[in-house]
Amino acid sequence: MHGLLTLSLIPGLLYELIKFEHVCRALSYGYDRLRFLVPVPEGGRIRLRGRICGAERREAGLFVTLECVVELEGAEKPALVTNMLELIFDE
Predict the structure, then answer these.
(1) DSSP secondary structure string, 21-75?
(2) How far apart are CA 24 and CA 49, in angstroms?
């Protein structure tokens, strides 16, 4: 699987792990420290580990940094590691 396809799966998988309450809308601000470490073969089984590693109040809303690690079944190293940046609006 192409690395960018693997990257595109992160938001959907992440929102199954982490829920923000009282959120009006969220803006994907991008990714930081993106690394493709292992290619994901067709039919490969992946899972996402995610955690909130930072949150900062800004004028527009809450700027959140989420660490995302995509693991490939049977691989010693993760397939992808990145920090997802989100701006969350609370009104």
Answers:
(1) SS-SEEEEEEEEEEEE-S---TT--EEEEEEEEEEEE-SSSEEEEEEEEEEETT-
(2) 25
Q: How far apart are CA 40 and CA 78, in angstroms?
A: 10
Residue-range domain boundaries for the chain:
3-89
CATH topology of domain 3-89: Thiol Ester Dehydrase; Chain A (3.10.129)
Which position has the higher pLDDT, 14 or 84?
A: 84
Question: Which amino acid, 61?
Answer: G
* pLDDT single digits (tens) 32-42: 999 999 999 99
pTM of this prediction?
Answer: 0.87
In angstroms and rounded to an integer, the radius of gyration of the C-alpha atoms of the chain is 14
